[in-house]
Write a structure and sequence with these properties.
By secondary structure, this protein is α/β, with parallel strands linked by helices. The protein folds into two domains: 144 residues, Alpha-Beta Complex (Aspartate Aminotransferase, domain 1); 245 residues, Aspartate Aminotransferase, domain 2 (3-Layer(aba) Sandwich), CATH 3.40.640. It has 13 helices and twelve strands. The strands form three sheets. A seven-stranded mixed sheet has the order 2-8-7-6-5-3-4, with helices on both faces. Helix 7 links the parallel strand 6 and strand 7. The longest helix is centred in the C-terminal third of the chain and has 21 residues. The radius of gyration is 21 Å and the shape is globular. The chain starts with 11 loop residues before the first helix and ends with a helix.
Length: 398
């Protein structure tokens, strides 16, 4: 087997299972799981109907590039959402969820030859796929800590100047997982200038872009930023997904858009990768990308939960309201995030994710230590109940 597999860390939820091993939660309390970023809102019926209506497509092999109807739907959505015109034939690809594509893109882009660029930068804490993708592509991850004193931004000045010429790929996540922070136009300008100067590719993970709190004020995306700055799509690849936007994590449907030259090479890789999307899933995806009403309702439900939960938690945990996404990134009393999560599970039957499980030690610190990620994905009443249990737990421990 590939020896690079031995470099992979256990996934955060495996670590969580190990942390809870032997712990018996309070049997008098119903379990509430706020650890995993899995949407729990019902999948809209029209998407399920479109999936069923597309089942006849199972009799055909799909093409890797996806149907013209799906690429047109994605391009039309991008124009409505980001104000940019994409060529559906050369600048858009459907993918089997953003996770699969984020991983695959590193395999296609990293030059792992002896003299190649072999460094991949990612935020820290981070979505664990970035690290695994880099390692299995033969690259070296470089973790850039996002810290509260810096507004949880990626501070590019912390990258050694002599490292830039080794950098092949930079992952950014906006809105951020787990912090919920959104990159500003100035942030994008700085990153684009670095990319233009040093020649690395930007992989912009925007899978939370449609979970925000003020209708008509969506978070800035990479495509819009590039346009506003008068820049083309050179060395920019954007990843998005229907999972969070449309409550269809099991559909495994997303999109990639950007630099046509890079997309051409990525499509070539994918024809060998066996990653063509099922025709039935394509039919459901067309329906989802073409509708915005269900997305607005989705946002309304998340906004209602944050409005109900944050005032209840403000005296128990320290946190800032996220710019977008459905997470609270909260500092716990005592800064021992693993003990906090374990004892909260034992006494209150509420599951949250220790922040240190989402980060790596870098520059002498694990930037997730002392935080927990709370995903407000369950029903409103369950999230409110969980907040009450957390407040009670913190009060007893004080």
């Amino acid at each position: 087997m590939n020896p690079r597999l031995d470099l992979l860390h256990p996934y955060p939820f495996q670590k969580l299972r190990e942390l809870f091993a032997g712990v018996t939660p309070n049997p008098e309390l119903a379990p509430i799981n706020l650890s995993i970023g899995e949407p729990k809102h019902p999948t809209p019926q029209f998407i399920k109907d479109a999936l069923v209506a597309g089942l006849d497509g199972l009799a055909n092999y799909p093409i890797t590039q996806g149907s013209e109807a799906l690429r047109n739907a994605i391009a039309a959505w991008a124009e409505r959402r980001y104000g940019v015109k994409l060529d559906p034939a050369t600048e858009v690809l459907p993918v089997n969820g953003s996770r699969e594509a984020l991983f695959a893109f590193a395999q296609a882009s990293v030059d792992s030859s002896r003299h190649g660029r072999r460094v991949v930068i990612s935020p820290n804490p981070f979505y664990q796929i970035y690290e695994g993708a880099a390692l299995l592509a033969g690259a070296r991850p470089f973790f850039l800590n996002t810290l509260p004193e810096n507004g949880f931004r990626m501070d590019w000045a912390k990258v050694p100047e002599d490292l830039w010429e080794q950098v092949n790929l930079v992952y950014v996540c906006s809105p951020g997982n787990p912090t919920g922070k959104v990159m500003s136009l100035a942030d994008w300008q700085e990153l684009f200038e670095l990319s233009d100067r040093h020649g690395f590719v930007i992989a912009a993970d925007e899978c939370y872009s449609e979970i925000y709190f003020e209708e008509g004020e969506p978070p800035l995306g990479a495509l819009t930023a590039a346009q506003q700055l008068g820049r083309g799509l050179e060395n920019l690849i954007v990843f998005n997904s229907l999972s969070k936007r449309s409550n269809v994590p099991g559909l495994r449907s997303g999109m990639v858009a950007g630099d046509a030259g890079l997309m051409k090479k990525f499509l070539l890789y994918r024809t060998y990768h066996g990653s063509a999307m099922s025709p039935a899933v394509q039919a459901a995806s067309v329906a989802a990308w073409n509708d915005e009403a269900h997305v607005a309702e989705n946002r309304r439900q998340y906004a209602e939960k944050f409005a109900a939960v944050m005032p209840r938690l403000k005296d128990a945990l320290r946190f800032d309201a996220p710019d977008a996404a459905f997470y609270l990134w909260a500092r716990v009393p005592g800064d021992d995030d693993t003990s906090f999560a374990r004892e909260l599970y034992r006494t209150a039957h509420v599951t949250v994710l220790p922040g240190s499980f989402l980060a790596r030690d870098a520059a002498g610190v694990n930037p997730g230590k002392g935080f927990v990620r709370i995903a407000l994905v369950d029903r409103l009443d369950a999230c409110v109940e969980a907040a009450g249990r957390i407040v009670h737990f913190v009060g007893k421990a004080a």
